[in-house]
Description:
Elements: H1 8-20, H2 24-35, H3 40-60, H4 64-77, E1 84-85, E2 88-89, H5 90-105
Antiparallel strand pairs: 1-2
Helix pairs in contact: 1-2, 2-3, 3-4, 4-5
Amino acid sequence: MPDDTFDEAAIFHEGLRLFNEQEWFDAHETWEDIWVMASGPRKLFYQGLIQCAVVLEHVRRGNPRGVRSVWKTAQSKFVDLPDVYMGIDIRQLLKDEYHAIRRILDLPVERFNPRLGRGQDLPYDSLHAPTIELLADPFEDQ
């Protein structure tokens, strides 16, 4: 039986709002609700958005290993998608996110030691946190 309460557009937009307000954990949780229902390129797209949010949550939690490993995976989700997908300039998002985390990615290798764990002070300025601009609403004509 279909779930009449499922509203992909509302969930998508709520995730964007949360991401742009630097509520990355909540954005990731929100987008997971539509990721599980998606298939094909849309599923990869949502996975990429989720992982972009998770990267930034790892920054917040001081986990450079998480930043590095999830960043690699996040980028791979967008490889086969067009530059603009579902109203989002994916290449710009990746560029902005890289700009925000590049100093973390460039840390000396010993900072990625699993024994150091979370809670590390990472070189990150929340004023440079990426935001996602919706160029066109992919749900507008539905």
